[in-house]
Design goal:
The protein is an alpha+beta fold. The chain contains 4 helices and 10 strands. The longest helix is centred in the middle third of the chain and has 14 residues. It is globular and about 45 Å long.
Length: 161
């Protein structure tokens, strides 16, 4: 099996968000055929898609994995389920959200999976921790992550650890 570098975005705004994200980071390191290479600091961000929700804690993980993209996504959903993730409506508050942001330099477009993750290029809470890990990271079809981050300068995101 070939190895790939994958980036996973983590976010939580319910039930001790910081602890949810930290626990999920160690769970990523235990996935079959996968090693957590690096993780970003934790960031605090305002919800973008709805008002009245608690702030989020976000991070990005860099993984070395032999899992194929759809299998990796299934494993991410299983971790979310362990954390009690519910999806009552779009942009609902969540105990844990795990998004497959990048998978090597691949582009995938199917009903169940889109890589790079849609809208990641518009979200400072994704780009800031990604740039921390890899300032030259390329978002296929969009450009360099550090350049994309400059376009999101009005979004409220702050490093907390």
């Amino acid at each position: 099996m070939s190895r790939r570098i994958a980036y996973v975005g983590l976010g939580s705004n319910l039930e001790a968000p910081r602890e949810q994200v930290l626990r999920a980071l160690s769970e990523l390191d235990r996935l079959p055929g996968t090693r957590l290479l690096r993780r970003s600091a934790l960031y605090r961000s305002a919800p973008l898609d709805s008002t009245g929700q608690p702030y989020f804690v976000n991070a990005v993980a860099q993984l070395d994995t032999t899992l194929e993209p759809r299998r990796l996504l299934a494993e991410l959903h299983a971790i979310e389920a362990l954390h009690g993730r519910e999806r009552p409506f779009p942009a609902a508050p969540r105990t844990l959200d795990l998004d497959l942001l990048l998978y090597g330099d691949g582009v995938i477009s199917s009903l169940e999976l889109a890589v790079p993750h849609p809208r990641m290029h518009e979200r400072a809470f994704v780009l800031m921790p990604l740039v921390e890990l890899d300032p030259g990271a390329m978002v296929p079809g969009q450009g360099r992550a550090d350049e994309l981050l400059r376009r999101c300068s009005r979004q409220e995101v702050e490093r907390i650890t």
